[in-house]
Amino acid sequence: MAVQSWEERLAAANAAAATNTDTSTPHKKPKGFFREWGDAILFAVIAATLIRWATFEAYTIPTPSMEHSLLVGDYLFVSKLHYGPRTPQTPLQVPLTHQTLWGFNVKSYSDAIQLPSYRLPGFSEVKRNDVVVFNVPFEDMHPADLRTNYIKRCVAVAGDVLEIKNLQVYVNGKPAVDPPQSQNRYFLQVNEPVRDKVFQEQGISDFNSPTGVPQPQMTQMGPAYVVDATPQTAEFFKKQSFIKGVVLDQAPAGQGRPRYFPITPITRTARRPLRRSQNLEQGQLRPATVAQGRPDGAAHSGKHAHLPENHHALRAQ
User: Fold this and answer.
1) Strand, helix or coil for residue 285
2) How does residue 49 score in pLDDT terms, banded at 50, 70 and 90?
3) Which of 65, 69, 108, 301 is catalytic?
4) Residue 282 burial (CB < 10 Å; 0-12/13-18/19+)?
5) Torsion of CA 257, 262, 264, 267, to 10 degrees
């Protein structure tokens, strides 16, 4: 019997491996184009939904209540980790939507199933002068977790005494710090129409107007423009020849406005002392705690949608 050298044995082993066909494991069929893209889109939607629920969410400022701190159209990300994310209450919802489908006035959710809502731990609490995003408590046509989002400034927390006197917010008897460029509401009595360019140059806008700036109105004092402006801007208009008078919108203390809650003596510029206590129901503000503040947001405050269940704050819309 001939003895094979190691070179011959290695060559024979390679030849046997090349001719050996293993039929026990079938070859994997590669994914098709649409299957591959479908899996990628599904993963992206799931990941985006989890990030949006548990970490942060993008918002666009829709109204001018926070001008000039935040402007209409500003794009911002809001952290949900600080106050703790809230578990979803409405599971039957089209992912990445809020209330309606994009481009359609059709509900994007079904409230057939409503789950109990729990607050996960956060690493912070709402402090005075924090700007917070929350769900409005009075919107009963939507579930609590799908109500309209508001962004306001929190000026009082649990145990504080809030008071508004002569346009100034007081917390625990001390004047609150006004944000830069705080605005009040004025009536501009005019001798002639004011050009839109004048309002634009002074940073005055009215997003309820088709032109984006205030339009003349017939008031008790005659033709006038109703504007939200800083005291410095009001002084500018007082010096203009086309302005007959600048009147601050300041209602007398004790003159109530029925559209505000509670139905007690309360105005835009004055409010009796209000102690903030635990007057919440299922983590939402009751209407009895709503008070009116300054139009620039200095006296706006809120129960954040992501507050811990035992934390309470005051919202003035």
Assistant:
1) strand
2) very high
3) 65
4) exposed
5) -40
Is residue 163 within a helix (H) or strand (E), and if so which, with residue range? strand 161-165
Look up tokens 């032109």; give the residue.
211
Note if 197 is an active site residue.
Answer: no
**Helical (H) or strand (E) element with 45:** helix 33-54
Mean local confidence (pLDDT), 63-78 = 83
Q: How far is the C-alpha of 301 from the C-alpha of 280, rounded, in Å?
A: 15
Phi/psi of residue 72, nearest 5 degrees: -60, 130
Catalytic residue among 69, 80, 108, 152: 152
- Helices and strands in the chain: count of H runs, count of E runs: 4, 14
pLDDT digits (tens, 9 = 90+) for 82-119: 999 999 999 999 999 999 998 888 999 999 999 998 98
Comparing C-alpha atoms, which of 174, 171, 181, 150 is closest to residue 305?
Answer: 150
What CA–CA distance (Å, rounded) separates 9 from 29? Answer: 36
**Tokens, residue 273:** 């002392």
Q: Can 24 be counted among the known catalytic residues?
A: no
Which two structure tokens, joined as six digits, stand for 304? 């954040």
CA angle 250/255/259 to nearest 5° reads 95
118 φ/ψ angles, rounded to the nearest 5 degrees: -125, 150
Contact 246, 237 (CB under 8 A): yes
Residues 6+ apart with CB under 8 A from 22: none
**What CATH number has the domain spanning 184-248?**
3.30.70
Query: Per-domain residue ranges for the chain?
Result: 40-167+255-317, 184-248
Question: What pTM was estimated for this model as a whole?
Answer: 0.64
Query: Which of 164, 66, 184, 177 shows the shortest CA–CA distance to 128?
Result: 177
Nearest alpha-carbon partner for 226 in 258, 178, 276, 268: 268
